[in-house]
């Protein structure tokens, strides 16, 4: 049965965004005792800068909205590129790893430096952990559901 591309992107983006933010919350808590609200304020700081950390509670909602906008963006890009990518990289595991790495590289080397997020130092362990989280939370759902969508809708 053919599925609407927008519906597939919406549902997959919602799943991937939810997995990613939950893993980000868990990682921040276990790594540094940082609360989910502080994680969401960090995300919002990309748009409004350092004042996100001292502003009203509604800024956490802004962070959550921005997080899902970004998740839907990556989902749409991956779904649209999947037919070409799947001819180059056939393994779903490798597709997920590649997706996680690409998302990390672009977000950390292009988007964050261009945003108003306060700068932080580089750490190999933090980078590898973030890539693993992105591979599991974003890469795997995108590879799985984009593959299924394009298989059913050829």
Regions with pLDDT < 50 over 5+ consecutive residues?
A: none
Largest sheet: none
Mean pLDDT: 95
So how many helices?
5
The shape, in one word, is globular
The count of strands amounts to: 0
- The level of helicity is over 70%
How many domain regions? 1
Q: Note the beta-strand portion.
A: under 5%
Query: Roughly how many Å is the radius of gyration?
Result: 16 Å
- The secondary structure category is mainly alpha
Span between N and C termini? 11 Å
Helix and strand sequence: HHHHH
Describe this structure in words.
This protein is mostly helical and 154 residues long. The protein has helices at residues 5-32, 36-48, 58-88, 92-114, 124-152. The longest helix has 31 residues, at 58-88. The radius of gyration is 16 Å and the shape is globular. The termini are close together. The model has no long low-confidence stretch (mean pLDDT 95).
Short description:
With 154 residues, this protein is mostly helical. It is built from five helices and no strands. It has one domain.
What are the main properties of this structure?
154 residues; mainly alpha; globular
What secondary-structure arrangement, pairings included, does this model have?
Layout: H1 5-32, H2 36-48, H3 58-88, H4 92-114, H5 124-152
Helix pairs in contact: 1-3, 1-5, 2-3, 3-5, 4-5
